[in-house]
Amino acid sequence: MQNALTTLIVLAFFLGFPFASSWSGRLINLRGYQFTLVTGLVILISSLVLIIISALLTPIMGTIQLTDKASIPGSYIIFLLASAVLGVSMAFLHVVINPYLSSCEVKNTTSASRITLGSTANSVGTFIAPFFLSYLVFNSATEISINQVIIPFTILALVIGAVSFLVTKMNLPCIEGTKISGDNKDIKRVWKYRNLKFGVVAIFLYIGAEVAIGANISLYAQALDVMKYITIPGFGIKMETIPLMIGLYWGSMLLVRLFACRLFKNITESKQLFYAALISAIFILMAIVSNNAWWLVCVGFGHSIMWPVIFNLAIKNLGQYTTIGSGKLMLGMLGGAIIPWIQGIMADMFNWQYTWILIIACEMYLIWYAINGSKSKK
Fold first, then answer.
1. Is residue 197 in some structural domain?
2. pLDDT: is 312 or 376 the higher one?
3. CATH code, domain carrying 51
4. pTM value?
5. How confident is the model at residue 5 (pLDDT cuts 50, 70, 90)?
6. Which residue among 178, 193, 206, 367 is buried most deeply as judged by most CB within 10 Å?
7. What per-residue string of b and e applies to 32-62 under the rule 16 or more CB within 10 Å gives b?
8. Are 327 and 88 contacting, i.e. CB atoms less than 8 angstroms apart?
9. 256 assigned to some structural domain
10. Using CA atoms, how far apart are residues 298 and 290, in angstroms rounded to an integer?
11. Is residue 176 part of a domain?
12. For residues 346 and 342, what is the distance between their CA atoms, to the nearest angstrom?
């Protein structure tokens, strides 16, 4: 049950997104962008406090025996709850930040390129985090202790508290034409836009594929018994192989996002998605054929631009339904919960190599969405 229980943490995190999808969009309509953003940050702090509590209660709560061979710490349940609350906070932040990036006017940029540039900050975090945690937690002692996570998460909670205070002092006005007018209460009409309907599915499969690689490449590499350490050629630097794989996967996304505004400004968003999904599918196929986890690192190049492109194609021409539509797109984030978890279960039943066919299927849908599904019809 190891793979299923490990990927269950990712499932809990992404379950928070659909829970908050309608809630966050409605809150923007009622209280505005700034209030919703601060609410998301406060929920984020709450999730970090829950993680700290789970660590503190680990020695007290003991273990829960699931089967003769499988057991989990009692505090694992609290950690799952914390992961879900963390997902709720992320949904709030996405629903506020992405429409702002899409709507603001910046010379020589498109809405997709602005969201891509904004995603660069996210990529910096995902690139640094594996190395940061590997050093801070796993290299600090020969025997790992749950108490080693308390100080880092306490610092994070304090930093985000400071950010929340700063946001309350900012001027974040309403984006004109993105909120439902007072005399129009028919929120369900948003589903009449086919590009949004198919866009939710596209987000579901893209996030599922992205997270499956980012979360499960380590489990796949462990199953292949890759060398624990690797020496980087030309530099003589010795690094842990699996954190390096994870870091390079997110790092490849960061690299493309840094230059996306220049590289793709003359290419339509649908073509960007088509080529990105095609390249990703080819790299995953190479990983299956060669049974080599390093090919999956390269998929980051294709996944780098998908989020902003799909998001923009999905909310295109929504008008006053833009805010509600942005919230509905968070339903698609559930893919980050379900697909990696299904893959983990498949790996327990069979082996990791052929579970990646599931991820290729996700890329195939994205190719179709780029060609046909993203076309908006009035």
1. yes
2. 312
3. 1.20.1250.20
4. 0.72
5. confident
6. 206
7. ebbbbbbbbbebbbbbbebbbbbbebbeeee
8. no
9. yes
10. 14
11. no
12. 6
